[in-house]
C-alpha cells in the first residue's frame, strides 16, 4: 500500500497561510522603556506597512523593552527639532526612536534617529535604509536590529528567519506536511515544500542560502538539499535504513547526519564537494542527532550507549568520545551555543519533557521551560533566545525562551500542528 | 505487583484464545474474506503496554493474525505476548515469498530523530525474531516512521501505548 506523493513546490511564493502571531508571556523585571514614535510619512495613501508598530513589537518580544503606547505620547516628533526631552522624561521614557519614510520612484527611504532621553543626546543620528515596497518589513527589522544593538550591545536578530514544519494529521490518512519559511516574528509565511509524507529535521546552511531536511516522499526517509532562491532540490542520500538529522558544519563544507546502512544508527559526515561519506561513530547503541560545535572541531550527538539517551561529544580529529550530560534519565538533541558555553537539549524530569540548558564550564543544568512535550530547541544566531516546539491546547505550537529563562513568548498557529523550528543564521 | 502479574496473565490467556480462534477461522475462510472479519473479536490492552490490542492498521489478506506489536517507552524489547504472536506470523511466512514491510513507530515524547532510531530498533527486533524462526530475511523490509505517523492522535498514556508499535504490513 504505497501512497502517491503529491509534491508541490512554491519556492518563495507568498502564501495565504495563517501566520504565527506572537503572545508574550514573560519579560525581564526591569525592561528598558522606549518610545517608538509613529513613522513619519507624507504619502497620500497610508504607508503599506506600519514600521513603528513592527519595531516596537520586535523590541517587546525580546523581553528587554517596554514600549510606550502611542496614546500616552504627548507629541509625534518626526525630526530632532521636534524632540522635547522633558516631555519624554516625565513619563519615564529612557529611549526615543524617531523615524520617517519617503517614497521616490518605486523605492522607500527610511531615516531614523535614536535619542537617549536621560542623557539628552542622540545615539543614532539620521541613519538611513531603503528598499522596495515588498521590503518595508525588512526596513523595520533592520531598524530594530540597530536600535537593539545600540542599547543592549548585542547584535539584533530581528532580520533573521525561521523555518518550521506544519503538519495536518487526522485519523484518516490524508496527511499533509509543509515546510515553511517565515520572518523571525512569524510574519510572511512562505511555503517551501508540501508533501503527503512526513517532513522533518530542517537545517540551515551557514550562509542561509540552502536548507537540508528529511523527506519521506520516496516512501523511505531521505535527506534533501534545497536552494532557497531557486527552489532547486537534490536528493543527497538514499540508503537502506535511517537517513536523518542533517546538520551543516560551520564552514558549510560538510553535512553531519545519521545513517543506519551498516546496521546501527551511526553519525556520518558527507563532504558536500567530494561527496565522500565518513563514519564518525561506531557503537551498537543508537547514535543520532548530530550537531556541530562552533569551531567545527567536534560533533555533539545523542546516544543510548549508557542504557538511556544522553548527550555525548566526539572530537573529529582524535575520535575521542566524551559524555556531556549526567543529570536525569533522558537528555537528547543537544545544540551548543555559538560561544560554546551552553548546551541546550530536551530533558526529562518527573516524566515531563522540558528544554534545559547546561553550562558547559561548570556542568550546571537549568530547566528553561514550564511546558510539556518540549522538543527541537534552536538557538537564535545572537544567542539571546531559543525557539522550541511544544504542545498547547492539543496542538503543536512554537514557543521561545531566553537562554537565561527571563523572557518567554509563544507563536501560536491558527491551523495545523507547528513543529521542528530552525532559526536561520545572520544573513550576510 | 499482583495486579500487574494478573493483567499479564489475563492478556496472555487472551492471546492464546485469540490464536486458537484464528486457526479455526482459517479452516472456514480463506483469501479475501478473512480480512473483513479480522478486527472484530479482539479488544485487549493493559495500561502497561506490551500487550495486544485491536488497531485500524491494515490487515493482510491471508491471515487473521493481529499485525501490531506494542512496546514499552524507550524500549525495543519484545514482550512475551509479542513473541507468541510473531511465532504465529513466522509459521505462516516460512517457505513463502510473501513480502512484509515492518513499520516501526514511537510515541510523541522525547526528540524526533531519537524516536526515528527507536522505531527502527523496534522494527529490527521484530525482523530478527522472525528471521530466527526461519523467515527469509530478504522478504522483510524495515522502515521507521518514528513519531511521525501516530495511530492515536491524543497525548496521554492511552494514546502513547498505542503508538509505540511495529506494524506488519503484508
Describe the fold and architecture.
- Chain B: Residues 1-17 form the signal peptide.
- Chain B: It comes from Gilvimarinus xylanilyticus.
- The complex is a heterodimer of chains A (428) and B (170).
- With 428 residues, chain A is mainly β.
- Chain A folds into two domains: 13-18 and 160-423, Neuraminidase (6 Propeller), CATH 2.120.10.30; 31-152, TolB, N-terminal domain (Rossmann fold, 3-Layer(aba) Sandwich), CATH 3.40.50.10070.
- Chain A has helices at residues 51-61, 85-89, 136-152; strands at residues 13-14, 23-26, 32-36, 40-41, 65-67, 95-104, 107-116, 121-131, 161-168, 176-183, 190-195, 199-204, 210-215, 222-227, 233-235, 243-248, 254-259, 266-271, 277-279, 287-292, 298-303, 310-315, 321-323, 331-336, 342-349, 352-359, 365-367, 375-379, 385-392, 395-402, 408-411, 417-423.
- In chain A, helix 1 crosses helix 3.
- Mean pLDDT of chain A is 92; it is low at 1-16.
- By secondary structure, chain B is of the alpha+beta class.
- Chain B has a single domain, classed as 60s Ribosomal Protein L30, Chain: A (2-Layer Sandwich).
- Chain B has a four-stranded mixed beta sheet with strand order 1-4-2-3.
- In chain B, strand 2 (100-105), helix 4 (112-132) and strand 3 form a beta-alpha-beta unit.
- In chain B, helix 3 (80-93) packs across helix 4.
- The longest helix of chain B has 27 residues, at 2-28.
- Mean pLDDT of chain B is 75; it is low at 1-61.
- The chains are: A mainly beta (428), B alpha+beta (170).
- The interface between A and B is medium-sized, with 37 and 27 residues.
Layout of secondary structure:
The complex is a heterodimer of chains A (428) and B (170).
Chain A: E1 13-14, E2 23-26, E3 32-36, E4 40-41, H1 51-61, E5 65-67, H2 85-89, E6 95-104, E7 107-116, E8 121-131, H3 136-152, E9 161-168, E10 176-183, E11 190-195, E12 199-204, E13 210-215, E14 222-227, E15 233-235, E16 243-248, E17 254-259, E18 266-271, E19 277-279, E20 287-292, E21 298-303, E22 310-315, E23 321-323, E24 331-336, E25 342-349, E26 352-359, E27 365-367, E28 375-379, E29 385-392, E30 395-402, E31 408-411, E32 417-423
Parallel strand pairs in A: 3-5, 3-6, 4-6
Antiparallel strand pairs in A: 1-11, 2-31, 6-7, 7-8, 9-10, 9-32, 10-11, 12-13, 13-14, 14-15, 16-17, 17-18, 18-19, 20-21, 21-22, 22-23, 24-25, 25-26, 26-27, 28-29, 29-30, 30-31
Chain B: H1 2-28, H2 32-37, E1 68-70, H3 80-93, E2 100-105, H4 112-132, E3 140-146, H5 157-163, E4 165-169
Helix pairs in contact in B: 1-3, 3-4
